[in-house]
Amino acid sequence: xxxxxxxxxxxxxxxxxxxxxxxxxxxxxxxxxxxxxxxxxxxxxxxxxxxxxxxxxxxxxxxxxxxxxxxxxxxxxxxxxxxxxxxxxxxxxxxxxxxxxxxxxxxxxxxxxxxxxxxxxxxxxxxxxxxxxxxxxxxxxxxxxxxxxxxxxxxxxxxxxxxxxxxxxxxxxxxxxx
Length: 178
What we know:
- By secondary structure, the protein is α/β, with parallel strands linked by helices.
- It has one domain (8-177): Alpha-Beta Complex (Amidase signature (AS) enzymes).
- The protein contains 5 helices and 4 strands.
- It has helices spanning 8-17, 22-40, 97-104, 147-154, 171-177; strands spanning 43-46, 66-70, 108-113, 160-162.
- Helix 3 (97-104) links the parallel strand 2 and strand 3.
- The longest helix is centred in the first third of the chain and has 19 residues, at 22-40.
- The chain is globular and about 40 Å long.
């Protein structure tokens, strides 16, 4: 599924109505990322075994919706590298508050997005895992340091992604990627 014409609300309606199952949505999202991300490089880690929570409550808008997380936000059991070789294989044993709240809301954490190493940059070109491309023009940067999150949404890989901001790290990529 390509998310360019979707919103969290539209996905929630499709899940509620049974037009799509949360399991199939997670599988389709992983397949879409594998197909699209070769040229964008928005993701560092994709959870190919991502599973939605059991007994989803679709009155909750995020239930079953695949969400990407910037790779400097801790995710229990899912590699968190901050786009650095130093943390290349770091797998946290605890959860960040924001991810715990997303999981409590039954969102499906689908993977970790690329960024400037340790969130220090403004182009998403300083990642150990390679630079991220702007999906609208592959010769342009997506901005940074949350460029992977913005590019993942702008390319239709996911409907939503988290970033972090201290000096324009969300605002700049949001502007560069529309």
